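Run: sequence + cytidine-5'-triphosphate -> complex structure.
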Amino acid sequence: MKTYAIILASGKGERTGLDIPKQFVKIAGKTVLEHTINTFDKHTGIDEIIIVSNPDYISLTEDIIKRNDFKKVKKILAGGKTRRESSYIGVSSIEEENGKVLIHDAVRPFLQSKIIDECISALDSYKAVDVAINSADTIVKVDNKNIIEEIPERKYLKRGQTPQAFELQLIRKAHELANNNNITVTDDCGLIVKLKLADVYVINGDDFNRKITYPIDVAIADKLFQLNSINAPKNDLSKLKDKVLVIFGASKGIGKAISEMAKDYGAKIYGFSRKTGVDVTEFKQIQKALDEVYSKENKIDYIVNTAGLLRMGKLNCREIDDIIEEVKINYMGCVNIAQLAPKYLNKGSLIFFTSSSYTRGRALYSIYSSTKAAIVNLTQALAEEWENEHININVINPERTATPMRLENFGKEPEDTLLKAETVAEACLNTLLSDYTGQVIDVKRR
Ligand code: CTP
Ligand code: MG
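>> structure
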């Protein structure tokens, strides 16, 4: 008996007010629909995926499936005018007699695979399963004059999410009855309840499993991907084999760790630093370095800049030349590299480094924290500018890391409170291999 996932993507997304339906908006380098399909495609409990697409976007949906090589997508169907109709189109396309069916909103891209697991196993005991979360707010019931009629006890009130899971025969019957009786509901469990066909068991959803509905949800989704991206880009690092990777700031700390790890995976590494005569504040020196690599290899796949400087002290007590040097290394270094990168990278990827102080300026290292904030902003802007050139750019945000620079400024700290340079290197290499762009990738201690 097979388990099917029906992904509903036929809506117009009118409430988000964008030019395209929200399921086709790109977040973290991929459309919302791609993120959603990916979760089901990867899940070992799902056998087949059926996409019910907005009829005007079928060919885009087909492109998405091809581009990602999603193996489990067996059908792309044109959806209906209402969610219920789209859902019916998905359910009635299944030819087998029996099976398990999970119906999910394409616009909930943060679904965790754990919820899919629980839906599938709950179907062994129940014929219909809903996913819902507790309501933090009190829910009031009002009449048509906006006067409270009732305040139901909160512990019995939950907010519905998806997926909703069913025995195939039950959900098929529910839709057929609804067709004949002109029943309107907002979701599939609503049908089962309205028609009194079975008990609907509720499993716990998750706050992350949000639906993109209004413009603010697109902005929140973008932030959630950033939060989520801590362990997110996981790739097969052996894909680094024969890739050409240029590292600025390669002589020590994180740069050195990246260089060593990438070499182990078979990448061709070109490391530069002031020691090798390449100062990131000097445009011409960077250009010369990139030229050298390019003429030797005929390509550059990735560029990473870890060069940075942290000088502590009250701003007014510091020498101006010292401040300028810090700004130039931290900020202008990135600008210089970014200026040159598109000439050398063909669909490649660039990575900068920020610090957790970018979100809030810190006393005694005001220049460091403000240059690190500037790098995040620069990364976001360039990700948009380079979209059509297919160059990805991201910025890694490591927690406090055990590096010579940290030791110099903060003295010896307990080892278990610091990230290892290798952990940061691994996140950096995974990000280079991902489709992410414009993202701040947080790296935390495990
Ligand atoms: N959906 C669908 N077919 C429809 C309407 C909705 O497949 N005719 C899907 C949407 O694509 C979405 C999910 O059902 O994945 C939840 O619906 P909703 O959030 O209402 O999306 P839209 O209908 O697209 O948005 P809006 O109501 O703002 O137009
Ligand atoms: Mg709708």
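>> summary
The mean pLDDT is 94. The CA atoms of residues 314 and 364 lie 5 Å apart.
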